[in-house]
Every structure is written in C-alpha cells, then in structure tokens.
Amino acid sequence: MKKQRPINLNLSTIYFPLTAVTSILHRISGIITFFSIGALLWLLGLSLSSPTNFLHACAIIDNFYFKFIAWVLVNTLFFHFIGGIRHLIMDFEIIRTTVDTGNISSKLVLGSTILFVIVSGVFIW
Q1: Chain-wide mean pLDDT for the chain?
Q2: Residue whose C-alpha is closest to residue 105's, from 5, 49, 34, 21
Q3: How far apart are CA 77 and CA 50, in angstroms?
Q4: Residue 43 to residues 9, 16, 93, 99, 120, Cα–Cα distance (Å)
Q5: Function, please (predicted)?
Q6: pLDDT tens column, 85-97
Q7: 103 within 8 A of 19, measured Cβ to Cβ
Q8: pLDDT tens, 66-124?
Q9: Residue 100, Cα to own-chain centre: how many angstroms?
C-alpha cells in the first residue's frame, strides 16, 4: 500500500521547537570546534618553532579579526560543552526526560551561553 504523505521541503515554513534548535546548534558547534582545532594547533606550532615565529604568532593574536574569531571559537566550545552535559544528563536519566525538562534545560543552556558570551567578550577585549 502506497501512502500519500505531504512533502514539505521548504525549511523556512517548518516550526522547530526550542529543544530541536538547541540540538541542531550543538551539532553545528561541534563541527566548528572540530575544524578550528587544526588552525589553533598550527598557531601553537608556529609560536613554539622559534623566537621570531613566536613574535609573529603574537602579532597574529593581537589582530582584531583573530580576537573576534577566538571569541567565536571559545563561545562555540562553551556551548558545545554545556549542550553535551545536557545531553549526558538526559541520556543517563539523571533528570526525567519530558517536554518540560527538555525546554527548561534548553533555556538553561542558551541562557548560560549568552552570559558566557558577554563575559568572554569582556575578557578577550
């Protein structure tokens, strides 16, 4: 029997609940963190290779664009870390997994991330 299901491929018309948005952002932050590790390791290797390259790495770090990128990377790493703790708590059933606890934990993750974004911005600049 062939079921006739409506197909909606327009993602802008689909309503995503807060828990889904938090989960999707958790995956995206993991990808950003994974790919940023290579650039940060390159910068570490550059700073450790010679005193001249150390000064070059210091000049790179003092650049406004690098500070902005570092700020974004620190915030994505924090969001991924807090979101991962949220997922672990729910997977190990430390808290009861319901729609209400999912919404509350998503709000806590997003709220703590917003607070961290402000605090880390003050420390970086």
Answers
A1: 91
A2: 21
A3: 29
A4: 42, 38, 40, 43, 21
A5: Membrane-anchoring subunit of succinate dehydrogenase (SDH).
A6: 999 999 898 888 8
A7: yes
A8: 999 999 999 999 999 999 999 999 989 888 889 999 999 999 999 999 999 999 999 98
A9: 23
Tokens describing residue 39 = 């650039």
- Say if residues 19 and 106 touch (Cβ distance below 8 Å): yes
Residue of 69, 72, 90 lying closest to 22 (CA atoms): 90
Residue 125 has pLDDT above 90, yes or no: no
106, burial (CB in 10 Å: exposed 0-12, middle 13-18, buried 19+) = buried
Residue-wise pLDDT for 40-63, tens only, equals 999 999 999 999 999 999 999 999
Question: Binning pLDDT at 50, 70 and 90, where does residue 14 land?
Answer: confident
The amino acid occupying position 118 is I
How crowded is residue 36: how many other Cβ atoms within 10 Å of its Cβ?
17
80 is annotated as contributing to ligand binding: yes
Domains assigned to the chain = 18-124 (1.20.1300.10)
Nearest to 83 by CA among 115, 105, 103, 114: 105
